Amino acid sequence: xTTRRLVVALGILMLAVALGAAALIVRYGDTDEAAVQPxxxxxxxxxxxxxxxxxxxxxxxxxxxxxxxxxxxxxxVCPSTLAEIAGWLxxxxxxxxxxxxxxxxxxxxxxxxxxxGQYAGYFSPRIVALRGTTNQTDQIVASYKAYxxxxxxxxxxxxxxxxxxxxxxxxxxxxxxFDAITFTATPEEAVAKLRRLIAAS
Amino acid sequence: MSLVEPRGVLxxxxxxxxxxxxxxxxxxxPAMAAQAHSSHDGDLExxxxxxxxxxPGAPTAAGYLExxxxxxxxxxxxxxxxxxxxxxxxxxxxxxxxxxxxxxPLPEGLEIPAGATVKLHRGSFHLxxxxxxxxxxxxDMIPVTLVFEHAGEVGVMFTVQxxxxxxxxxxxxxxxxxxxxxxx
Lengths: 201, 184
Hints:
The structure holds 2 protein chains of 2 kinds. Chain A has 2 domains: 1-37; 46-200, 3-Layer(aba) Sandwich (Glutaredoxin). Chain A is built from 5 helices and 9 strands, in the order αβββαβαβαββββα. Chain A has helices at residues 2-34, 77-92, 113-123, 134-143, 187-200, and strands at 46-49, 54-56, 65-70, 100-105, 127-131, 148-152, 160-165, 168-171, 177-181. The N and C termini of chain A lie far apart (74 Å). By secondary structure, chain B is an alpha+beta fold. Chain B has one domain (13-172): PCu(A)C copper chaperone (Immunoglobulin-like), CATH 2.60.40. In chain B, strands 1, 2, 3, 4, 5, 6, 7, 8, 9 and 10 form a 10-stranded mixed sheet that branches. In chain B, a hairpin with a 7-residue loop joins β1 and β2. Chain B is globular and about 45 Å long. The chains are: A alpha+beta, B alpha+beta. Chains A and B meet through α2, α3 and β7 of A and β2, β4, β5, β8 and α2 of B. β7 of chain A pairs antiparallel with β5 of chain B, so a sheet runs across the interface.
């Protein structure tokens, strides 16, 4: 008798634990979904473009924009992305004429205004290259919840690389984050997102 | 094999005729060089070597190719030598889930497992040329020496292509390989 009661009690206990776990999973699921809400990307910044003009968050108002962080010592992801952006602009043609494109350097020490102007202009004359002081660069990186970190090369040359966010941020005509295009997106996916951005702006 | 014309570079019919010839030569010459310089007779097959044209003044350039090891033992790409840039290395790019790009040299080199093809392509492995002295322009042919642990020094002629055109070529080839794999 005692054994049978014990088994029943154990059964009830296990059921309770299972229910508790299930409840926790459901709760966790809810929290996870909440994290998919639009994140607070974008905000105040003060930078200078390749022609010496000061550009702030106010310049993003009234038209859709693309914002991409990179640096000219980057041989792979940055030039590939800028070439892709130029391709998207070609595909959009007249439909994309309001779209502003900002290439923000995370390496102001090596990327002078002249270097940036040549670099960005090669891909498209529509790319506005933005450079700031270290503090200004830190501010725009923080505003966009982006990431930039200097990595030294141990080859005795003093060269360094930059880890940085590789996605292209899509900002609407109010300067509010709309979507992002990741490095692995196909041109069709990218242009579809841009069309949605343009339609919403 | 498909040939992708660099946009706006070669427009005359004579050039579009010459270009496949140049490309064919680029593929034959390294094969010959590989046999001449390799102690491992032709275990390695090197395909589609190309360097992305760089913007004026850009300090770095990236090179891409596919390396197939037909041998029974692994090999390793240890060193990259060229004369158009100050230094060259094998680098790996990793983009994490948060979308952050990290690029690093591979101090141990790049392993080419036996019977496998390793593809150097954008957003992955690439040859990193640093402090470019002569800007690579679409249509240029650039000689590069790859040093493997077992195959030794292999001379490869890289073709310079515009980034957009090189990418299309690579995508096409990747599709081809996927079909082949699924068919096996």
